[in-house]
Design goal:
By secondary structure, the protein is an alpha/beta fold. It contains 16 helices and 9 strands. Strands 1-2-3-4-5-6-8-9 form an 8-stranded parallel beta barrel, surrounded by 5 helices. Helix 13 links the parallel strand 7 and strand 8. Helix 1 packs across helix 14, helix 1 packs across helix 16 and helix 13 packs parallel to helix 14. Bound molecules: (3S,4R)-3-hydroxy-2-oxopiperidin-4-yl beta-D-xylopyranoside. (3S,4R)-3-hydroxy-2-oxopiperidin-4-yl beta-D-xylopyranoside binds next to loops.
Length: 360
């Protein structure tokens, strides 16, 4: 039996921290009510080998999405097999798929501490590292200029345990170029493609627990510092790898988003999924908890109006990284995404539809 939106929102509300806390909605997401309907682009990340082996995946993406993010094909590990060479074939294939279906492509990612080939890691000289970064950003952005209109310029700049002193992640680029590498990357990217939307992307900024409040504060500091320095940052990306059972800091995240919008930044949800390894079975109860958590997150993200776009990290549970990165100990399948293993809709997709089409 198909679920109605009313069913889903009831489920989501029952499962959400908002209703548990008895907090009245103040977020745009629940109030709705203007004359216009938001039409927020929805995208999915996709990995080329999956797209090539299962026709249902491309069909589902072209049916539900207007955006695509390549999972690995625009990372250094894929693009830079050896010093001095570029392999554009996998990136071209995903961009070609998107172009063929009239979809936008979000570029992921130009500067990141991870996913670097060994030959890059072995370069220790600052001058050489800077030359490499400039060459990479210029070459890759220029190639995909027509189709890739937004880029995660710097991914995950905040460490997992920021303490106010060390609130920048150590890693390849920090070690070679120091903290200035973040601003440098944005300046180089802007010079290559002045019309591209340049995004600073981060994870774990949405929870009320664990490292999240400190990450949120450090992320805010970095954004403000970059803007004070005149860096061409246009948007923040909230990855949204939600952890099943970690409560969303709804008010704090809403305040954060409102402040970011006041600074003139757009908000992108870039990698939404729910790591459900510690959540209950059976599947329908788990799906309700997941939908509730996504509902809380998107309510807060929408606090100052619709986000620029919402992208999930995959679309079907069958092709999610969660199934191998965070498997369940009870042996049942993970259910982190809007469509299940067999490409059937779950309440997660209804929640996305709700936020895509709110009256504003
Ligand atoms: C992950 C991919 O899903 C995996 O297939 C890959 O092995 C490692 O990277 N944050 C990011 C993404 O910004 O690039 C990561 O993607 C997931 C976490």
């Amino acid at each position: 039996m198909a679920l109605t939106r009313r069913d889903v929102l009831k489920w989501a509300l029952e499962a959400s921290a908002l209703s548990a806390a008895g907090t009245p909605f103040r977020a745009f997401g629940a109030e709705a009510g203007g004359d216009r309907t938001a039409d927020i682009p929805y995208g999915a990340a996709v990995y080329l080998p999956d797209l090539q082996t299962d026709a249902r995946l491309g069909a589902a993406i072209s049916r539900h999405c207007t955006r695509v993010t390549p999972v690995t094909e625009l990372k250094w590990s894929s693009l830079r097999p050896t010093s001095g060479t570029f392999d554009f074939a996998p990136g071209d294939a995903i961009v070609g798929f998107a172009d063929g279906h009239g979809m936008d492509v979000h570029g992921h990612t130009l500067v990141w501490h991870a996913s670097l080939p060994d030959w890059v890691e072995s370069i220790t000289d600052a001058g050489e590292a800077e030359r490499l970064m400039r060459e990479h950003v210029a070459t890759v952005m220029a190639r995909y200029k027509k189709s890739v209109r937004s880029w995660d310029v710097v991914n995950e700049p905040i460490p997992d345990a920021p303490d106010g002193v060390t609130d920048r992640r150590d890693g390849y680029w920090s070690e070679r170029l120091g903290p200035r590498h973040v601003r440098l990357a944005f300046e180089v990217a802007h010079a290559v493609d002045p019309a591209a939307m340049l995004v600073l992307n981060e994870y774990d900024v949405e929870f009320a627990v664990e490292r999240s409040p400190a990450k949120r504060a450090a992320f805010r500091n970095l954004v403000e510092e970059l803007l004070d320095q005149g860096a061409p940052v246009h948007a923040i990306g909230l990855q949204g790898h939600l952890r099943g059972g970690w409560p969303i800091a709804i008010d704090e995240l809403a305040d954060f988003v409102v402040d970011m919008r006041r600074l003139g930044l757009q908000i992108l949800v870039t990698e939404l999924d729910v790591q459900d390894q510690d959540l209950v079975s059976p599947a329908d109860e788990r799906d309700a908890v997941i939908a509730g958590q996504v509902f809380d997150f998107l309510s807060a993200v929408s606090a100052a109006g619709p986000p620029h776009s919402i992208t999930t990290w995959g679309i079907s549970d069958q092709y999610s990284w969660v199934r191998w990165a965070f498997p369940r100990s009870d042996g049942t399948r993970n259910r982190p995404l809007p469509l299940d293993w067999d490409f059937q809709r779950k309440p997660f997709m209804d929640v996305i539809d709700h936020f895509r089409t709110l009256r504003i």
